[in-house]
UniProtKB/TrEMBL annotation:
This is GDT1 family protein. It comes from the Bacteria. Belongs to the GDT1 family. Pfam families: GDT1 (PF01169). The keyword Iron does not apply.
Amino acid sequence: MFESLSVPTLIVALAEIGDKTQLLALLLAARFRRPWPIVAGIVAATLANHFAAGAIGNWVAGLFSPVTLSWTLAASFVAVAAWTLIPDTLDDDENSSFKRYGPFLTTLIAFFIAEMGDKTQIATVMLAAQYPYLILVVIGTTLGMLIANVPVVLAGNFAAERLPLPLIRRLAASAFAALAVYAGYQALRLGGLS
């Protein structure tokens, strides 16, 4: 049970560093200079987005045999590991139209949209398919987002400029690769290549 919370927290915290939503958090902190409404917007957007993603992952897990699901997860984790190595960028104009709504609503809307199809959302789908406790997975992925983004919001440019992003991306990719190996091992243990 603890694994359903701890692994998603660690994976998303690592994957989120240098991600476009972290860049978005930095942009919002610089624009509004009001950290707590931004943090509240991140929490609300992430819970909504990751609960939907987790529900999909949980549903998909019931559609496949354990062996097929494990092989699919292994391949997906390999793909996300490779994706994690690619640095994200954030187009400044992408979210500029939202700033008139204030820090909370702007953050809520911008984060929800930015997470659509993002590697942490895809990771949430996969983690929810792998672990049986959906709520713990969603709490874990949300905690991971907060671990990575709240310091950026609170410290502004200071934290983001000093982080060794290439090393952190490699660590996150390694964590996803380890999950791929584990899922492949589970597939082999459950029944082989069928």
